[in-house]
Amino acid sequence: MELQSKILHTLYNIFILGKLKEAKAEFVKEDITKILVVRNDNVGDLICSTPAIQALRESFPKAYIAVLVASYSKDAILGNPCVDEVFIYDKYKHKKYKSRWVAWWNQFKILMTLRKKRFDLAIGLRSDFSSSQGWLVYFTGAPLRLGTCPTKKKHKKFKFFYNLFAEEPKDRHHEVENICRMLETIGVKAGEKRLTVHIPEDEMLRVDKFLNENHLKDRLLIGLYISSRLEENNLGDEKIAQLADGLIERCGAEVLLTRAPWEEERARRISELTKHHCIHIFHTPSLKSLGALQRRCSLFISVDGGPMHLSAAMGVPTIALFGKTDPDTWRPWGERNFVLKKGDHVNNLSVEEILKTADQALKNNI
Predict the structure, then answer these.
(1) Exposed/middle/buried for 85, CB within 10 Å: 0-12, 13-18, 19+?
(2) 167-176 pLDDT tens trace
(3) What are the structural domains, with CATH classification, of the chain?
(4) pLDDT per residue as tens digits for the range 25-82
C-alpha cells in the first residue's frame, strides 16, 4: 500500500502539478495570507462548518479566505461575513449537465481558477476522509493542505492529497465539534461555535408579505418540513397530516408546511388529508427563502437534513425527527432543540410523541 501510494503521488505530481516532487512545506502562521476551505458535500454539513470558518477568520483576521462548495449547498455560505469569496461548481449527479464530461470540464475550469489564486493553505473541512474532497484540495497546488488522515485501506493510497493531518474522531461527537477540532492541528481554536447563515432582506420581506396576506402575522407559527432523499427519514403522508391537525388543535398554532422543490404535489396531497385543509404551504425556491420563513416561526419540526440544521442556525427551537442517521453526530446544534428517534425509520415515531415534544418545546421557549 505504501509503495502504491508513493507511485501515485509521483504520477500525480508530474501530471497534475507539473513537478517530480513537492518541496517540503512547514506551517508558519505568519506566512499564511490566502486560505481555501473545501466542503463539497451537503447543506447540513456546510452549515455545521460555519463555526470552524468563523474560527479561521478570527485566527487569520487579515487573510483572504475563500470557500469551494457544490452548487447544491451554495446558499448555506453565500453572504457569510467571514468569507471573502465563494467558488461554486456543479456535481454531475445533481443533473444540471446531461454529460459527465461537461460537468468535469466545468469543474476543471473552476479548479484552474483556484490554482491561479496561489493559496498558502487549503483545508478539506470534513471530519472523515473523502477522496473526492482531498482531490480538490490537492489540485489547487497549495503548499500546505490540511485534512483528515485516512484510516480505511481503500483511502490510504491517497494520503498524499494532504500534508497536514487531523485524526479521525475516535468517539462520537457532533460534527461541529469534530470540524473545530481539526483546526486545532494548526493552532486554531474555536470560541462560541455559532452556526451562521446569511438571509437577505428581500427574502424576509417576501415572508412578511405572505404572512400579512394570509393574516398570520400575529399568530403562533410552527414550521413543518417534510422532505428527505433517504426513505428511512421520510414520515408518511397520513402521519404528517395527523401531526399538522394536532399542532393546530392542541397548540393553537398555524402550521406552515415546507418541502423540497420536487415535492409540490406531495405537499398538496398532505394538505387535502388534513381535517380542514388548513395548513399553509409556503413556496421556498431556495434555502435562504426557507431560512427567512424559519425566522418567523416559534417552533420548527423537521426530518433529519439540511433544513433541520438551517433552523438551528436561525436560532429557532427545533424538533428533529431521526430515522437512520446518528443524532449524536448530526442533531441540530444548540441547547433549545429536541431529537426524536425510535429505531432506524422515522415512521416508528408516533404522532403523540411528536406532539408531546412540541408542547414541551413551546412551554420552554415562549
Answers:
(1) exposed
(2) 888 788 999 9
(3) 2-186 (3.40.50.2000), 201-365 (3.40.50.2000)
(4) 789 999 999 999 999 989 999 999 999 999 999 999 999 999 999 999 999 999 999 9
Range 77-93 average pLDDT = 92
Instruction: Categorize the per-residue pLDDT at 104 as very low, low, confident or very high, splitting at 50, 70 and 90.
Output: confident
- Determine the Cα–Cα distance for residues 331 and 325; give it in Å rounded to an integer: 9
Q: Which helix (H) or strand (E) holds 173?
A: none
- For residue 240, give the amino acid letter: I
CB 127 within 8 A of CB 169: yes
For 226, residues 6+ apart whose C-beta sits below 8 A from its C-beta are: 234, 235, 240, 257, 258, 259, 263, 266, 267, 270, 303
Q: Which of 243, 297, 236 is nearest to 275 (CA)?
A: 243
Give the SS3 label for residue 366: coil
C-alpha cell at 290: 426557507
The number of beta carbons lying within 10 Å of the beta carbon of residue 117 is: 17
Query: What is the signed CA dihedral for 280, 358, 334, 220, rounded to 10 degrees?
Result: 40
pTM, rounded to two decimals: 0.93
Q: What mean pLDDT, rounded, does the chain reach?
A: 92
Best CA proximity match to 87, nearest among 104, 106, 62, 105: 106
pLDDT band at 364 (very low <50, low <70, confident <90, very high): confident
CA atoms within 13 A on the CB side of 231: 0
Residue 173 burial (CB count, 10 A): 15
- Secondary structure class of 55 (helix, strand, coil): helix
* Structure confidence by residue, pLDDT tens digits, 306-358: 999 999 999 999 999 999 899 999 999 998 999 999 999 999 999 999 999 99
Q: In what order do the strands lie in the sheet with 34-38?
A: 85-89, 64-70, 34-38, 121-124, 144-148, 164-166
Beta carbons of 41 and 73 less than 8 angstroms apart: yes
- Rounded alpha-carbon distances, angstroms, from residue 271 to 51, 128, 222, 225, 353: 37, 40, 15, 13, 21
